[in-house]
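We store chain and fold; example below:
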Amino acid sequence: MSLPALLEGRLRLPVVAAPMFLVSNPKLVLACCNNGVVGSFPALNQRESGGFKAWLEEIEAGLEDDGAPYAVNLIVHYTNPRLQADLAICVDHKVPIVITSLGAVQEVVDAVHGYGGLVFHDVTTRRHAEKAAEAGVDGLIAVAAGAGGHAGTWSPFALIAEIRQFFDKTLLLSGCLNHGHEVLAAQVLGADLAYMGTRFIATRESAAEEAYKQMILDAKAADIIHTPAVSGVPASFMRQSLERAGYDMKRLQDKADINYGEKLKPLNDEAKAWKSVWSAGQGVGAIDDLPSVGELIERLDREYREARKRAFFLH
């Protein structure tokens, strides 16, 4: 196990609640952190940098002394016009963990390390992982097949095994994790932390629309479609929302343009499409309730401890 000092002794469970577009907000982040797991949100969930800064202030004011650290997701892509401004705000607020996506850049890593923060980076292949490791990141998030959001297609067995051949720092695993025994399974595979997204959408604190939450309760693994047609990057979405948004189901392998500047324009047609196309992972079929975050973490904790006891007895 390889946990940085920032996380040692501060987590009730080895879990990070993933940053989710239009879902993660201060209420969800605080509920996670104050119940003992890392809460996170994308900086771009606020339409402008002033709002992003206000969210950081709200989170910092609401964190309990014994709470887990929080994290912010930055899109490191040339089409994101806010990157430099949002990075400067992260530095000013000394954000404990910065999660980077779509680019592992030395400049970002150095800026966060400059105040003692951590950088975790999303990867879907060995090549992506090697490039991020070269940039000096503190952790890699192995986004395996079946994960929601910008997911990969590699089996978690293959992805974890190959990353561990050259990376001995903190490793997180994402993909179909809903229960405490699955958190333990991620550790058995070689990960240090479980990275859970879809399960936290279906909580009472989540900012997802009620129809979004209900669709997760109704969906099964067969409803999840992995496509580059929405954002230009292959990602997992629920079939029902793609159909409702008018996507041609026969052309879902056509790649959309990647442009994060356009996504920030509230009146832009493409931005509206993003709001009506809902992401989820293949683990949706195991989600059948809408608990509070506190109730969910209590259950995960119980399941995790029971699984550890079973594993001990088997040994």
